[in-house]
Amino acid sequence: MSSVSEDPDTGIPPAEVPDLPPPHAHGFWSRWVFSQDAKYIALQYSGTAIAIGLVALVLSWLIRMQLGFPGVFDFISAEAYYQFITMHGMIMVVYLLTAIFLGGFGNYLIPLMVGARDMVFPFVNMLSFWVYFLAVVVLAASFFAPGGPTGAGWTLYPPQAILSGTPGGTQWGIVLMLVSLILFIIGFTMGGLNYAVTVLQARTRGMTLMRMPLTIWGIFTATVMALLAFPALFVASVMMLFDRLLGTSFFMPALVEMGEQLSYGGGSPIVFQHLFWFFGHPEVYIVALPAFGIVSDLIAVHARKNIFGYRMMVWAIVIIGALSFIVWAHHMYVSGMHPYFGFFFATTTLIIAVPTALKVYNWILTLWRGDIHLTLPMLFALGFIVTFLNGGLTGLFLGNVVVDVPLSDTMFVVAHFHMVMGVAPIMVIYGAIYHWFPLISGRMLSHRLGLIHFWVTFIGAYAIFFPMHYVGLVGVPRRYPDISASFVPDSVATLNAFITVAALTVGAAQMLFLFNVAWSLARGRKAGHNPWRAASLEWQTPEVPPRHGNWGDELPVVYRWAYDYSVPGAPRDYIAQDDPGHRASWSHVP
Amino acid sequence: MSIVLGFVALVAVIALTWLWRQGVAERPWLETGAVTRSPSPGGQPTGRTGLGVFLIVAGGLFALAGSAVTMRMGYADWFEMRLPRVVWAGTALLALSSLALQAAVFAARRGDGPGLASWIGAGAASMAAFLLAQGLAWARMAETGQGLAATPGASFFYLISGLHGLHILGGLVALARVATRLRRGPGAAAPAVALCTIYWHFLLIVWIAMLAILTGWASDAAALCRAILS
Amino acid sequence: MIVAACLVLIVLFSVAFHLVSPWWWTPIASNWGYIDTTLVITFWITGAVFTAVVLFMAWCVFRYRHKPGRVAHYEPESKRLEIWLTALTALGVAAMLAPGLVVWNRFITVPDDATEIEVVAQQWFWSYRLPGADGQLGSSDVTWISADNPLGLNPHDRFGADDVVIDGGDLHLPIGKPVKVLLRSVDVLHDFYVPEFRAKMDMVPGMVTYFWFTPTRTGEFEVLCAELCGTGHGYMRGYVLIDEEAEYEAWLGEQLTFAGLPAGKEVQVANTAEPIGGSDP
Lengths: 590, 230, 281
Prior knowledge:
The complex is a heterotrimer.
Chain A: H1 28-33, H2 38-68, H3 78-114, H4 122-141, H5 172-201, H6 214-246, E1 256-257, E2 260-261, H7 269-302, H8 310-323, H9 341-351, H10 353-367, H11 376-399, H12 401-407, H13 411-441, H14 447-474, H15 491-523
Antiparallel strand pairs in A: 1-2
Chain B: H1 2-21, H2 46-73, H3 86-110, H4 113-143, H5 152-180, H6 186-214, H7 217-229
Helix pairs in contact in B: 1-2, 2-5, 2-6, 3-4, 3-6, 4-5, 5-6
Chain C: H1 2-20, H2 33-63, H3 79-108, E1 115-122, E2 125-130, E3 164-167, E4 171-174, E5 179-185, E6 190-193, E7 200-203, E8 209-213, E9 219-225, E10 238-243, H4 245-253, H5 265-269
Parallel strand pairs in C: 1-5, 4-10
Antiparallel strand pairs in C: 1-2, 2-3, 5-8, 6-7, 6-9, 9-10
C-alpha cells in the first residue's frame, strides 16, 4: 500500500474550513420563496425548469402534428411553425437542460456530496434563482407580445433574426428573447460562481478531488466551461440587440430586404456564428458532462461495483471539457468560412470521440461482472447508454467535414442532436430523479408506474429518432413545415406520421411521471435511511431528508473514495465515505 | 477568435497545473483515512477564490469582445478610430484610482486607519471622475460624427466601454460596502480592500487592452513581432 | 431477462431497418460519389461499434443480473484494457477521418477548367447569372440593386454586359462540365441545396461563397434552401436542369443578357471605361 494515511483516531488535523452555521430559515417566505438554502433553491430551479419544459413539450407536439399530418391542422401556419421550433429548441437547451443540471442537481448535490453545509455565497445563490426566474418570465412573455415569439431558429442567426421576413424579427419577439438570454447568463454566472467555488473551497476534511463522486466532477467541469462559454452568448446577444435597436452594424452587412435598401453596412453574419458556436458547442458538453457524471454514479450504485477506471473517467471529463473549446466551427462547415478550417475542426472533433468512447466502455465494464439490480435508475442508465451511443456515433458523420456537407441542415442533424443531447440527458435526469427522490422527499417513487414510464419513454424515443436519421438521409431539410419535394418518396410521409404518433405517446407518458411524483410525495412508500445502500456522502446525513445545514452538529470526515462497493473482506457490500473502518484489517485487499 | 483562444489556453494551463498538484494521478481506492498526500481543500480565503473565478468570467467576456473586434476589423469598412483627448485624461484617472487603492492596501497592512480611509476615498473619487470623463468622451464623439451607429470602431468603443463602465459601477458598490466596515478598524477591512484592489487593477488592464485593440496598436505590435521573427 | 432481450431487439431492429427499409439517399447526379463512399465507410464502422457495444451490454445485463448471493467482482481499473480500447477507438476514428480529409481536399480544390456561374438568393426565390461570351462574370454589389437591376450588377463594368441573367426561371447546365458555383445573397443567409448533387454551401450577404461539382446525369433536380431564411424558407424552391450540350446551347441562346435589361443599357456607353471593382469574386 502506498498510502501515507494517518490513523483516523489519532491524527485528524484541524478543519481548514471554518464550520459556520448558515443563516437560519425562519418562516414560509425565507424558506420557500427567498430561500438561501441550496436544497430549496435546487427545488425552485428544477420546478421552474420543468414548468417551462412542459411548454416546450407541448410545442414539440405541435411541431410533430404539422410534420406528421401537414395541412390537417390549419392553425399551424409557417410562421407559427418557426416560432414553435425556435422556442422549443431554446427552452430545451438553455432553460430546461442547463438550468436543471446545474441549477437543480448542482445546487442539491454539490454541498451534500462534498460535505458542506451550503453553498459558499448563499445570498448570491438566491439572487441567481430569481434572475433565472425573471429570464423565464421574459421568455414566456414573448408568447403574448405583439407579433409573438421569435421564429429565427434557436441559433438566432442574423441577419434574418432581426428582419421583417422572420416572425418577431422587427417586433418584440427577438428583443425579448435576447433580453431573456442576457438575464439567464447573469443569473447563471451568479450560480456558477457558487458551484465552482463551493467545490474548490468548501469540501469537508478528507474530501480530496480524487475522492469526489463523478457527479461532482461532471457538474464542476461543466460549470467552469459554462462560465467561460456563456459570455460568448452574452456578447453576441448584446451586439445583436444593438443592431436591432440602435442601428449598429456588428453583424449586418449592406443588404436589400424585399427590394428596399436598408441602412446597415459592413458587418458580418459569420462573426455572430463564431461567437454563437463558441458558446453553443461547449453548451452541448455543459449538458452532457453532468449527465456523464450522474450516470456513472447510478451505474456504480445499482451494479454494486466501483465505477470502472475512475481515474480515466475523471481525466476524460477534463479532457473533453478542454477540447470542446476548439471544435466549435464544426457547426459551420457549410457556413462559408475559410475552407481550410475544415481540416482542423474535423480533426479536433473526431479526436474528442476517443475520450467519449472510453467513457462508454467504462460504463459497460462497470456492468461486467457486477451485481446488477434492475432498479428504475439502472434502467434509465441503460437507456442512456443506448441512446447516447447511438447519438454519439452519428456525431462522427457530422463531425467529419465532408460527410457533413450533404447531411448538414437535414433531418439527420435533428435526429442526431435529439438523440445525443435531448433523449440521452433526459434519460439521466429521470434516472437521477428516481435515484434521489427518496433523499429529497423521504419516500420512494412508485416502481410500477416508473416501469411503464421508462419503457414507453425509452422505446418510444428510440422509435422517434432512429428512423428520423433516414428521413434526413433521403435529403429532407430541417426547419421545413412541409417536406414534400420531388425527390421525397411518398413513403416518407407515412414514416413521418408514425414518428408523430410515437412522439405524442412519449409525451403522454411524461404526464404519468408527473402523476407519479405527485402521488408518491403524498402516498409513496417510506424510503428510510439510504434505501439504495449508496456509499457517497449525500446519503450519510444525520436526517433524511437532510435538514437545514445538512450535517447536524459536526461536519463529516471523509476516509475513502465514493466507490467502495463489494470490497473483498468488508462486512457489507458498500462502505460509506465517512466510515473510518480499517482497510488494513481486511484480507486480500489488492 | 485568437484573443479568446489565448485566454482559454491560459485558463486551461492554470487549471491543469492546479489539478496536477491536487493529485489527479493518484489511485484513490488505495488510500484510506482522513489525511492523504493531496492537499486538503480551503487553502486560501473563499473571497479570494470567488474573485479569481469571477475575474476569469469577466476576463473571458472582454476577451470575446476583443475577438469580435479583431474579426470585424477584417471587413472592408473598418477604419481606425479617432478618440477624443478626454479619453486619455480618463485613462490617467483610472490609473490613479488603481494606485490609490494599492496605497490603501499598504495603509491597511501598516494598520493606518485614517490613511486607509483617505486612500479609499481618493480611489473612489478618481474612479467616479473616470466615469465622468468617459461620459464626456461619449458626448464628444457623438458631436464629432462618431455616433453609435456611425462607424464600426465607434460602435465597439461604446459597447466595450459601456460594459467596462457597468463593471466599474459594480466595483464602486462593493467598495462602498467595504468602506462601511472601516469603523471596525483597518484589520477588519484589509482583506476586502485587497480584493477590491485586485479588481481595480483588472479594470485598468481591460481598459488598456481595449484601447490597444481599438486604436490598432495591438495589430501594429503583432505585425512588428512577426516582422522581427521572420 | 426482458431488459437484455429488449437490448438485443433494439440492435436487430436497427440493423434490419438500415438494411431493409426503403429510405436511402437520392441517386447521385454529380461527381461527389466520394462523399457517399466516405459515408458508407462511416456507416460500417459506427454500425459495428453500436452492435458490438449494445450486444455486450445485453449479455452483461443477462449474465450479471442480481440473484441472491451474487457478489460483484472488485476491480478498480485495468490499464491494459483501457489502453487497448483507446488504441482501437483511435484506429477506427482515423479510418473515418483520413478518407474524409482527402475528399474534403478535393472538395475545396476547384479544377482550373471549371465554368463560373452565379446563384443569387433572396427572400424567397433563386436567380442565376451565367458568364456571356467573354467567359467572365461582371462585378456586382447590393447597392446597385433596383427594380430594373434585380441582381445588383455593376452597370459600368464591361464584363457584365454579356452576362446572362435568369431572374425567376430555372437554371440549365451542360452535363459533364465542371462548374464552380459562386453563391451570393442579397438579404439573409440561404443555402443552395440540391440533394442529388451532395455538395452545398451557405450564401452569406456581404460575401461570395462557392462550391464546385460536375453534373453526371441529365434530368430535372429540385433546388431547396437549406439555411433558415424566414417565413418562406420551406417554399423557396426551384429547378436545375442538366442538359446534353446541344440542348443546353439552344436554351442559352434564348436567354436575355444584362445589356438587354433596362438597367444594362448604360453598359454600352461605358464599354470602353476601365472595369470598376465592386465585390467581384
